[in-house]
Specification:
Length: about 240
């Protein structure tokens, strides 16, 4: 049975860290784990959707990224270890989540990773920093994705802060698939792709067409998988294109 090693509570609900057989999970009180982390592979994301989000590295070698929603920081730990020289900004609303990520999930600390304790939607409306190569959006509460993540204002704000050649990566539930949302993305981005998993739907929206053909992507995938420490092949095989 998992052992609870950390618990906190704020206005949004509980924040719990559980551990079993060397694997720690972050939970917000709902039925699903928000993040999963292994002591034996501290830089390798354990959840499929996080691994799938990293397919964006086939389209862009980022120097500046922004992550909206920290969770346990497994995405950010992987990027920190796997992409040399990358500078990351991360926005997280709940101080207890930041504390848990740093104390129990080995979130990197230093000049290459800047944390902002703030509301992600307000942050994007007011952002005045450098243009970004990739924005990762993974905004969830205990029960569902934050609905504003699918709004026209949020998508427009993200597009405005991306460099030419930049990408927005959204983690959604599979039930969020809709013609209306796809049309919104196609209005603002040159290319839209997605990866459908069991329960999750990861969307990639690029300001420029993705470089390379299918053969080139497979060759890149092999090298990138070696660099990150796990195979991206299962997710590349599920990658679908969505034309405007």
């Amino acid at each position: 049975m998992p052992q609870e090693i950390f618990t906190a509570h704020d206005e949004f609900g509980p924040i719990r860290v559980l551990e079993s057989d060397g694997v720690r999970t972050l939970n917000f009180g709902g039925p699903d784990a928000q993040s999963s982390w292994s002591r034996s592979e501290p830089h390798v994301p354990q959840l499929e959707y996080v691994r799938a989000m990293l397919l964006v590295l086939l389209f862009n070698t980022p120097r500046q990224t922004l992550t909206l929603g920290l969770g346990a920081g497994t995405l950010n730990s992987c990027l920190h270890a796997g992409v040399a020289g990358l500078k990351q900004q991360v926005v997280e609303l709940r101080p207890g989540v930041i504390e848990a990520a740093q104390r129990y999930f080995q979130l990197p600390q230093g000049k290459r990773l800047q944390l902002h304790q703030a509301d992600a939607f307000t942050f994007m409306r007011e952002y005045k920093g450098k243009k970004l190569d990739v924005i990762f959006s993974d905004l969830y509460n205990a029960d569902d994705a934050e609905g504003e993540q699918f709004s026209a204002e949020f998508i427009e704000n993200c597009r405005h802060q991306l460099k030419t050649g930049g990408w927005l990566v959204l983690n959604c539930w599979d039930c969020h698939q809709s013609d209306e949302f796809m049309a919104l993305l196609n209005r603002h981005f040159c290319e839209v792709r997605s990866c459908l998993l069991s329960g999750n739907w990861v969307v990639f929206a690029g300001t420029s067409p993705a470089p390379g053909n299918a053969k080139a992507l497979k060759e890149q995938e092999w090298a990138l998988s070696k660099q990150l420490g796990f195979s991206l092949q299962p997710y590349l095989g599920r990658l679908a294109s969505h034309g405007s």
